[in-house]
Hints:
Elements: E1 2-4, H1 12-21, E2 26-34, E3 39-51, E4 54-64, H2 66-121, H3 130-158, E5 167-170, H4 171-181, H5 183-186, E6 203-206
Helix pairs in contact: 2-3, 3-4
Amino acid sequence: MTIISGEQPHDFGKSIYDCVSNGLVWQGEVHLRKRSNEYFWTSGSVFPVNEDGQNAGYVCLLKDVTEEKELMEANKHYREKVAEQEKVATLGYLTSGIMHEINSPLSYVRTNVEYLETVLSELKGDSIDVDDFKETIADCLVGLKQISEITSSMKKHLYKREENEKASVDIIEELRTVLLLTKNEYKYNANIQLQYNEDEKVYIVGNASS
């Protein structure tokens, strides 16, 4: 004896009954439980039986597909693992370039701060070049902004959504992220410019981490 396992919606059995009662053939998969508490998957059809225009019962044809389901699930996990390994390998390859992109602004931010420290330590009276200070601080802020953009892009790229979790993805933002993270790979060989209308946003439904 087998019964529906409860793995599927609570009204699953009723939906099959309603389908067959209306003279229709139901097709699909059913998760069942044996008296021994062993669970298994079946795939098949339920056919209505009519006698003299009246519903006289039904015929159920089911095939055990547990092994197939397990193989499909194992293959799914394998593909996910391979995809994750490829992603890690790609990040490892890009790491040196990304670190270079971070170190460059860090270097001139450090140089500018050291310059400000030297000037302040030697400052006498009111002899200070305000414009020079403003320019130096502005350079520091540019460098810090670059570092912030790189780290934010890396965080977004590393964040992994669930396979079936979809969200609204900004295409322009994704392109900017890709160009930023791969800049060290192409900057000496190509000049890539992303041109778009900043007043318009283009979104699709997808997974940004793919």
